[in-house]
Amino acid sequence: MKSTFSIFILVTITILFGQCRKDKSPEPLPEDTRKIEVVFNEIPYPTEKFLRIGYTLKMWEYEKDGYRLKKIVVSDTVTKIELLTLTGMEIPGIIKDPVPPLPFFTWDSLNHYYLSIQIPVPLSQSKPLHILHRFEFRDTLQNKDVTLEKAYFSTRINEIPVVIASPVKGKNWLFASQSTMGYHFYVILFMSGEAWRPERFAFDNAQFDDNLTNILNGDPTKNESYFNYGDTLYAVADGKVAALQDGLAENNGNTHNVAINAINEYAGNFLILDIGGGHYAAYGHCVPGSFFVASGDSVKEGQPVARLGNSGNSGMPHLHFQIIDRPDFLFSQGIPFVLRQYRKVNEFDYSGNLLNPPVVTITNSMMEEMSVISFE
Fold first, then answer.
1. Going by DSSP bridges, is the β-strand pair 67-76/130-139 parallel, antiparallel, or unpaired?
2. Are residues 131 and 211 in the same domain?
3. CA–CA separation, 343 vs 349, rounded Å?
4. CB of 359 closer than 8 Å to CB of 225
5. HSE of 187 in the Cβ direction (CA atoms, 13 Å)?
6. 197 shares a domain with 134
């Protein structure tokens, strides 16, 4: 539920031995206990550019055998098209023991590595039915490269994500930390014998001025300086209030100055709506005392439910929003979803430059992380 946007040596030996290895192909790694499998296979969802296929790999603890992961090639087994190639720093962060400590969380011990991948398949390309991985490792004990073909799985392309209305209205919004392999997608909470991934398809948001140059006007340590602060939040579908937490103090602007005293305070003041079908819409970091509804109330799509704030684990005013499979902000599984309609009005590159694509109306889709969107 962070709101910040994240972006990231042996010379002589490399030269000498790199020349010797240049013409050698990596050797196949022998089959034995070296298992890699897909453990979470998610429903794919479309953006305005891609069909995004998300999943998590469970891997043996290869570093204990002296291996270093160098490359992952993800291929469509039918068309033989390479869908994604990851090398070096492009390889997502791997969850392994010991999990970094976090206050109020007691992590289970892990005896496998976990790596989450999201494949962006261009909408113009055929949808892959079956996927296979080729892993390239450096055997640091034998000083050679080795390969392993593993983790075959069938995609869930015949299933569709949840379709909802937007929880915010107005213009010049950027929904961050979704449609990416970064935070929130890779978060898994290994606790009490379960692997919870509540934030897998969550987003945080910010709102720009008409020039798309600023998200605030004034002192960044004051909530009122941010254009989105206090904005009305809306029910994304007909439903019922399943859970509500209120009364927690807000952080001041970007200071993150309010201490977290219990595990249930990470989401701040929050609301969870039961929208049917085993789906729950969760709104985090709301303004204290701003709820228009109470526990047990029925709501209609588009009805005001709360105001956007800065409570809980938050570094500036924003809405943290996710669809989950039970009314618990943390101990639940994230579900992919799309918005019924939005207008894409612009797009940033990762250097902060505006690309000025044509304005288009998009239906039944999520947006790419750097798309600027409006609901008008």
1. antiparallel
2. no
3. 18
4. no
5. 20
6. no
